[in-house]
Specification:
Length: 255
């Protein structure tokens, strides 16, 4: 296999990888001059394995995050939610990152609010191990269940990229998604909002009055959740959009 950057980029591009030049640069850096290793890394990438699992890292909000094989790869479209959560966090406040995966959002909160306490949870032991390796105080279990009870009523910010893809739409995700990743990271139940709904209810036990809830979602899910938000005592509900105007999340305050 030719090992010059142009040949490698052409090969990845020919195989359908859109960011072929950037990927080539990352793989070359990861191989650090070892051609045999480079061949192995490229062979893995050509199977469709996520690049971050191969290099073991990704940049999220300009911070390098370790990503272990099997753990959800943080997406650029979650960066705005992480930044917004950091803005809502008091200097020495407390935040919870639900469904933390690699711990990417928790890490952003930790770097932007170093005096704050940040805790996280995930149901997948590989995610909890990865988040822990990223320096996050991470707990294993369902949503808020494994968190220390001492935090009840004391949390300033609950943020989460929880699974929100409607089960019938899972087959529409990218071709290779479930060749590698687990549906557990994506499956939000029949209408996609089953886990979001549980979070709205359970977060109230941990949030203090005036605390913020920030959740990633898509499509018309913000509208579907409005009645729950009102019934459960959340106010100042706003919808977060990305640069293309697509709905990416909701922010609400516990009254
Ligand atoms: C879409 S990923 C988001 C990961 C991370 N927040 C990020 O943005 O990179 C969803 C994560 O939720 C976890 N998860 C799914 N169901 C869960 C549950 N009931 N309780 C806790 N974590 C859960 C999955 O293991 C996965 O790591």
């Amino acid at each position: 296999m030719g090992h010059d950057p142009a040949t490698l980029a052409a090969m990845l591009s020919g195989a359908g990888f859109i960011a072929a030049e950037e990927e080539t640069a990352e793989l070359l850096e990861c191989a650090a001059g070892d051609d045999e290793l480079l061949d192995a890394l490229i062979a893995r990438r050509l199977t469709g394995e996520p690049l971050a699992w191969i290099t073991g890292r990704i940049s999220f909000c300009s911070l390098e995050i370790r990503v272990d094989p099997g753990v959800y790869v943080p997406r650029w479209h979650s960066e705005a939610l992480a930044r917004r959560a950091a803005q809502r966090l008091r200097r020495n406040g407390t935040a919870v990152d639900l469904c933390t995966g690699s711990g990417a959002i928790a890490r952003i909160l930790m770097s932007r609010c170093p005096a704050a306490r940040i805790v996280a949870s995930d149901i997948d032991p590989r995610a909890v191990a990865c988040a822990t390796a990223n320096g996050v105080e991470a707990y294993l279990g369902d949503l808020l269940t494994p968190l220390p009870r001492t935090l009840e009523g004391r949390v300033d910010v609950v943020v989460g990229v929880v699974p929100y893809v409607p089960t019938p739409e899972l087959p529409l995700l990218q071709r290779d998604t479930f060749a590698f990743e687990s549906p557990v990271a994506y499956d939000g139940g029949h209408d996609g909002i089953e886990i979001l709904r549980r979070v709205l209810t359970d977060a109230r036990r941990f949030l203090k009055r005036g605390g913020a809830l920030l959740l990633e979602l898509g499509g018309a899910q913000d509208r579907a959740l409005r009645p729950d938000l009102a019934r459960l005592g959340y106010t100042d509900v706003s919808v977060l959009h990305d640069e293309e105007g697509d709905v990416r999340g909701i922010e609400a305050t516990l009254a």
